[in-house]
Design goal:
alpha/beta, 10 strands, 13 helices, binds 6-O-phosphono-alpha-D-glucopyranose, globular, 5-stranded parallel beta sheet
């Protein structure tokens, strides 16, 4: 049917606020109270998953960032080597595919030309199996892959991807657990992640409740020309996705860096005209991140930090330090992208850009 914006001014905003609902949809029938169900991945899956010794992920744009987060998850929880590459590179270079590789394409549309070409090339090279994590039933990637894990986010109209991203991550966390169980993850560890997943829609709801605060903060960005997004670990790809959102719809130059790399270049750019946005959940890397932020502060940079509520940074006022509830570690990427989606949305609205149809971009790039 024809999608409608309902009460929302833009599809992107509607789709952002749909996330708690579509994440629930994505989890539906795939988890019990404590376990990830094998049926989540289709009838042929169990036998294939048993044999996976390496994972190769291929995607473009926002879907590539889901892949980047997944690499951190798969290597951490499943202990299986995982590589991620943008499809336009993978398809044109001499690639080596490890024995018993599960090749995963990630795509909202299932029609991205580069991703499809990369899948076809990898199949020719020889794979254990291919899987697509996709939002569009019957799409080319779904038809040409051995397994498919549908994100079930419903039609996404805004060119800047929101709900497709968080449902990709949700689905890929399920897949991570399925692989991890076969590689020594304990039942207790599985239960911990599944229990967290049951809380996910509510946590995303809480992050969305920050909307009015973020709308205010967006005023401080409207006249900026550059910005730097920082994160560490699986929050680095979230910084990348936050930067991509801001670029796509507000046309502000945004770069993302793993915070530990600051001193190897970007620190030279820091001055009062360049806002620095950091995502700082409460995890093992928080202390390291905070010391990176101190370096920025000492050089006169204007910091905007999205942090766990227990973090009390310097004397940042509430336009510069936004608190989020404590999130189970495996869910941090999914929850912390929400405020960054909202930030880019409000900055774009203030700048008067065409939020749902940004200049020069297409929802789905089906030709090379
Ligand atoms: C285009 C869209 C992006 C999207 C990318 C990959 O660039 O504008 O929002 O992330 O394609 O699309 P896919 O459908 O393969 O996820």
């Amino acid at each position: 049917g024809t999608a409608s914006k309902g009460e929302y001014k833009h599809f992107m905003l509607k789709e952002t606020f749909e996330q708690p609902t579509v994440i629930k949809q994505c989890l539906e029938g795939r988890i019990s109270a404590t376990k990830v169900l094998d049926q989540a991945f289709g009838v042929k899956a169990a036998d294939i998953l048993d044999q996976v010794e390496a994972v190769q992920i291929i995607a473009c744009g926002t879907s590539y960032h889901s892949g980047m987060v997944t690499k951190y998850w798969i290597e951490k929880y499943a202990g299986i080597p995982c590589q991620v590459e943008v499809a336009s590179e993978f398809r044109y270079r001499h690639t080596v595919i490890a024995k018993n590789t599960l090749l995963i394409t990630i795509s909202q549309s299932g029609e991205t030309a580069d991703t499809l070409a990369a899948l076809r090339k990898a199949k020719e090279q020889g794979l254990l199996a291919s899987m697509t994590v996709c939002n569009v039933p019957g799409s080319s990637l779904v038809r040409e892959s051995d397994l498919c894990l549908m994100t079930n986010a419903g039609p996404e109209i805004g060119v800047a991807s929101t709900k497709a991203f968080t449902t990709q991550l949700t689905a890929l966390l399920l897949l991570t657990v399925a692989l991890a169980k076969r590689n020594g993850m304990s039942e207790a560890a599985e239960t911990e992640i599944v229990t967290a997943l049951h809380q996910l829609p509510g946590l995303v709801e809480k992050a969305l409740a920050l909307d009015p605060v973020i709308e205010k903060i967006s005023q401080l960005f409207a006249d900026k020309h550059h910005s730097l997004f920082l994160g560490r670990g699986p929050m680095y790809p979230i910084a990348q996705e936050g930067a991509l959102k801001l670029k796509e719809i507000s046309y502000i130059h945004a770069e993302a860096y793993p915070a530990g790399e600051l001193k190897h270049g970007p620190l030279a750019l820091v001055d009062e005209d360049m806002p620095i946005i950091a995502v700082a959940p409460k995890n093992d890397l928080l202390e390291k991140l905070v010391s990176n932020l101190e370096e920025v502060k000492a050089r006169g940079g204007e910091l905007f930090v999205f942090a766990d509520e227990s973090v009390n940074l310097y004397d940042l006022d509430d336009q510069h330090l936004v608190s989020l509830p404590t999130v189970p570690c495996c869910l941090e990427p999914i929850v912390y992208i929400i405020p960054l989606q909202l930030l880019s949305y409000h900055v774009a609205v203030l700048k008067g850009t065409d939020v749902d149809q940004p200049r020069n971009l297409a929802k789905s790039v089906t030709v090379e």
